[in-house]
Amino acid sequence: MPNHPILLSETSDLVLKLTLNRPPVNALNFELIAALQEALKVAERDPQIRCVLLSGVGSVFSAGQDLNSFTTGQKGYRAHLLRTYNPLILQLRRLEKPVLAALNGPVSGAALGLTLACDLRIAADSARFVVGFAGIGLAPDSGVSLLLPALIGIGRATEYAFSNAPITADQALAWGLVNRVVPTAELSTIASNLAAGLAHGPIGALALAKRAFNQAVLGNLELVLDYEAHLQEIASPSPEHAEGVQAFFEKRPPRFV
After folding, report:
1. Could you tell me if residue 251 is inside a domain?
2. pTM of the complete model beyond 0.90
3. Strand blocks (E) in the chain
4. Among 98, 103, 147, 229, who pairs with 81 as Cys (CB 3.0-4.6 Å)?
């Protein structure tokens, strides 16, 4: 498939490599989300694509939603989620081909949901994970409210959602948030090799395994995504959210009173 300016794509050895390309922090805007949705549709239809590998340019995987593009171009938070992250998360979980995330650096907010929806995660030792939503006075969305507790337990998920403290790569590995941690310089090679191995595997059987896991553990994902969108519609007009966003742009800690 052709490259998109903010989503680089390359197909090699039956693997579609998608690279977020909005430096310096690869923040997600409407154009990039739409490009990801279209790329996953291509991956679903193309028999020459048997695995998807997702990464980012530079030293940050993604800082999550671009607040600049959101505040200037979107009227309703629920409508935003129903158009963007909710269908994207469902695409990732329903794609009957392996999806591997190569996390080249920090991950936060909606980008955390994006990576948790992938089947496997390999993190550079420089990666860290921030839930992020509480910092701007919002509830978790992008499937984080289901996927994060499913991987690390509700106690840890609650602590890090409430505190907004970063989860280090080593913590993420110990808790099952990622499958492997590798030296940053070796991430691309190791992830590409793993993706190629998956692409040459029994894709039909892997697809059925993914269906089974979706049914057994994530059977209510679509309902959860819809409820997250409902909660964001409640949170978005609050003074806490206004203060969180203002503090973000003023590069200061928020003052929630």
Report:
1. no
2. yes
3. 7-12, 15-20, 51-56, 99-103, 107-108, 120-124, 128-130, 167-168, 180-182
4. 229
CATH code, domain with 121: 3.90.226.10
> Does some domain include residue 236?
no
CB 146 within 8 A of CB 220: yes
Q: What is the DSSP string of 58-77?
A: TT-SB--B-HHHHHHH-S-H
> Which amino acid is residue 11, in one-letter code?
T
- Phi, psi of 20, rounded to the nearest 5 degrees: -65, 130
* 107: containing domain: 7-185
CA distances from 256 to 85, 135, 233, 239 (A): 27, 10, 19, 9
Torsion of CA 235, 117, 221, 14, to 10 degrees: 140
- Residue 104, both tokens: 């080249």
For residues 100 and 17, give the distance between their C-alpha atoms in angstroms, rounded to a whole number. 9
Contact predicate 137/119, CB 8 Å? no
Percentage of residues of the chain with pLDDT beyond 90 = 95
